[in-house]
Specification:
single chain, 322 residues, Aminopeptidase
Length: 322
């Protein structure tokens, strides 16, 4: 059921019960490995000894469109019992992005606002979409997003949970990235013991600075600025990965990151998605959900625009016949 101009997007009780029952581990087993041969071709053993010169040398790209849900947490590590954010407690999803890697079309990315209000069966008040991770892990969150956006059966195909440590490790493993901070960013939170201090303009950022860029909220447009900065960092990461020396180090970097992430992607599948995304000259097509204006009566929760009509995300283009 699609969200409407009602106070929140309603999620069917059957889907919620199923999601909670499965949990994060069973979610990975149920959709992470079913139909594996249909998603990724068998590994070409010759790729393992071939020098990494182009993205195609990483692995064979997926044979059909694959949708990945990226969940950025507000915790330092995925195993930490408490986050270092507000509100304090178990980790929430602080950034949500659906990525679709299509062998015959540009890679697509849809930014989802964690503040989007959703109504769960049995609860009187709507909750933020990002809080569903705390309530039911990737299972509940993925199920809710699939219902909200109108994804097909079995989607998202995979999920990737990134802690803040994982983000910093990824950026530092690439030797930093060149990104543009659209404004000077300065913020200090004494309660969290965290500060943001970035100059405006194009600059090379290390992992800690990229974290600052992504965590900053422009007071005039908090959600819009975050979405813009996510796009800037996403494009910068892809540009960095395409550099020959960094491309050659991706398999090692992916291996080292596995202890800092939660995912139902195998090493081969991860490299396959990277090969598919990096091989497209068009880059990534970013989009966002249309939201209603901020209303003080709704607090920090946001609503979909009444003008939003399904599908909220263009469906995947079919794979061309060989």
């Amino acid at each position: 059921m699609m969200a409407s101009p009602t106070p929140a997007a309603h999620l069917p009780s059957r889907r919620r019960r199923t999601a909670v029952r499965l949990g994060a581990t069973a979610f990975g087993m149920a959709i992470g490995f079913a139909g594996l041969a249909l998603l990724w071709p068998k590994t070409d053993l010759s790729l393992e000894t071939r020098p990494l010169i182009t993205p195609a040398d990483l692995a064979k790209p997926p044979a059909r469109p694959v949708t990945l849900l990226i969940i950025g947490l507000d915790g330092n590590r995925i195993t930490d019992p408490l986050n270092r954010a507000a509100p304090s407690g178990p980790a929430n999803a602080d950034a949500l992005v659906l990525v679709r890697v299509n062998p015959d079309a540009p890679t697509q990315a849809l930014s989802l606002p964690p503040e989007l209000a959703v109504a769960l069966p049995g609860q009187r008040r709507p909750v933020a979409l990002g809080r569903l991770y705390r309530l039911g892990g990737p299972a509940l969150l993925g199920d809710a997003i699939a219902e909200l956006v109108g994804l097909g059966t079995g989607q998202p195909d995979r999920y990737l949970v990134l802690s803040r440590t994982a983000l910093r490790t990824l950026v530092d493993g690439l030797g930093g990235i060149e990104a543009n901070a659209p404004r000077a960013m300065r913020y200090r939170d004494r309660a969290q013991g965290y500060s943001i201090d970035l100059q405006a303009g194009l600059q090379r950022l290390d992992g800690a600075q990229v974290e600052q860029l992504l965590r900053y909220r422009d007071p005039l447009r908090p959600q819009g600025s975050r979405s813009d900065d996510q796009q800037e960092v996403g494009r910068a990461l892809l540009r960095a990965m395409l550099q020959p020396t960094r491309l050659a180090g991706l398999p090692t970097l992916v291996t080292g990151l596995r202890r800092e992430v939660g995912t139902n992607l195998s090493q081969t599948e991860t490299l396959s998605l990277l090969a598919g995304a990096l091989s497209r000259r068009e880059g990534v097509e970013f989009s966002t959900l249309p939201l209603s204006p901020v209303r003080p009566s709704h607090g920090s929760l946001r609503q979909l625009s009444p003008a939003a009509t399904p599908p909220l995300w263009p469906p995947a283009q079919p794979v061309a016949a060989p």
